[in-house]
Amino acid sequence: MSNEIRLAACLTAILLVATSIVMTSSEIFTSSLKVERMIMEEEKLLQEFKRYIDYQYDRLKMFSNFYADRLRDVRMRANPEIVNDLQHPNAVYNVIKRFASDYANVLGENYESFRQVVQSSFGQFLADVNDVRGARLSLLRLQSVYNMKALDMARGDYLGFQGPPLAPLDAFEIGQTAFTEGKLNLSIDWLNASLALFASTELQHLVNPVYRPTDGGIKALMGRAYLFNGQVHEAEALYDEAKLLDPNHGDVGELERELRSQPRLQSIPHVDYFQNFSRLCSLENRHYPAEPNNPKIVCRYREAVLPYYRFKEEILSLAPFASVIYNVVSDQESDHLKNFVKNRLERGKVGGDNSTVSEIRTSDLAWIWDNESQLARSMAKRIECITGLDTSQRLPDGPSSGEAFQVVNYGLGGHYEVHMDPFDEPPKQAELKDSGERIATFLIYLSDVQRGGSTVFTRAGISVAPMKNMALMWYNYDPAHQRDDLTHHAGCPVLIGQKWICNKWIWTYGNTFRRRCGLTPGATQLEIEPDMKRGYL
Ligand SMILES: O=C(O)CCC(=O)C(=O)O
Ligand SMILES: [Fe+2]
């Protein structure tokens, strides 16, 4: 077939591709970097508190000692040794909680005005109630993906990784959040855990009687969770218990009224993909798909720039083509990239015009164009050599073959739900105009992740655990240039640790002849590769 005919076939295929990305759920997030900053700024915050109390309002000055004592209390509860180890979700949760509500509780009604005073110096890094809610949702996500028990989590035991405990009130509040989110089984689990924790003698120092819900109140809420879950008998039993413990709760008449009048909350169904998602996320290792997808060639070397500068590649799957390539950047380069973006990280956005604050992606991210950094230029060159694809950026007006590097920082339970990388609609960014489509994704892990945070392909059954400096590369279009549904993938929630990645998306523009169409409908990447301009051994 002549090149012209192949090109025409490719272009037709591009036009025929239909796209659909489902966006669900909604959450706030706090990246690991923000939490680190809050801790670094904590002393400054305390000083501001003191100044505020001592000098700004006579009314407060009278109570200066009282406030100072209570602030010290909050600070003391934050055992610095544990709190500064931000690898563990409970430690992160406690920091967010301390900033967003413990300090706020000390100042009570004066907190809002104080907040405005310090806003300029803390800006977005001062967590608020939305972040606490986001943190609770993150813990709930970790719980359902990694199948953990609320009581273990509350005691700091995450699949054997030990961290600080949560206060009994937090367990209760997580149960409340789960309830309002319709995650009824999780809600029951957390409310049960909170009863055990409030009763535990070791945790009494974490209980503030002012905010302690009664056991009757907790059981009544559990009863409602059962009720909405359709478990009427369990609900009735709990209402009875609640009524005995606390006459304000547990009225069976109330139960009946609810049965008649309330629309039933449905438990979130476990869709099939979720089962697969959860299983793949828990594998936490490079996982080769079962035959017949499993290729014969699993390891080869790619040359880049100089013949002795080689990269070891392991092919994970032929269709879709996906491989990992080791040490594509050095430790110093990884760290340099993270430092470079520290001051420009923003809440993740998705969509063709990059304008929608992401509700399916909980992370902070930043972009680096090749012309902004020598390192970005050199990495782009390396990726060209490894993939044989063009990544040139023709700024300001020309269509680009490669997107800017996208550096991403995932914090507490940070994740990216199942999606495909090609856009639904052509992007509106001037730089990407007429660039075609994201044919390939080149994802570099800039950190190890202690536990969780794998990249999983839910339909192809591939699971890749992050390894610092390693790249994961795949084609979003098959050799017939059809968008490949098997490339549906997700970033699993980070369980322990922090996760940094850096993406380079490679576009059709400039690559039509570099990555040619296959001659047969079932042609695999390896069959079309001899056409490609690059070396591998
Ligand atoms: O974080 C991951 O492992 C996946 C990220 C991803 O899919 C993306 O950035 O498009
Ligand atoms: Fe992706």
UniProtKB/TrEMBL annotation:
Spans traversing the lipid bilayer: none
Localization in the cell: Endoplasmic reticulum lumen
Organism lineage: Eukaryota, Metazoa, Spiralia, Lophotrochozoa, Mollusca
Cofactors, names only: L-ascorbate
Entry-linked Pfam families: 2OG-FeII_Oxy_3 (PF13640), P4Ha_N (PF08336)
Superkingdom, natural source: Eukaryota
Domain Fe2OG dioxygenase as annotated: residue spans: 401-508
Entries under PROSITE patterns matching the protein: FE2OG_OXY
Chief subcellular location: endoplasmic reticulum
GO cellular component: endoplasmic reticulum lumen
EC numbers on record: 1.14.11.2
Keywords annotated in UniProt: Dioxygenase, Endoplasmic reticulum, Glycoprotein, Iron, Metal-binding, Oxidoreductase, Vitamin C
Gene Ontology MF terms in the entry: iron ion binding; L-ascorbic acid binding; procollagen-proline 4-dioxygenase activity
EC category name: oxidoreductase
The protein's name: procollagen-proline 4-dioxygenase
Purpose: Catalyzes the post-translational formation of 4-hydroxyproline in -Xaa-Pro-Gly- sequences in collagens and other proteins.
Signal peptide extent: none
Similarity-based family: Belongs to the P4HA family.
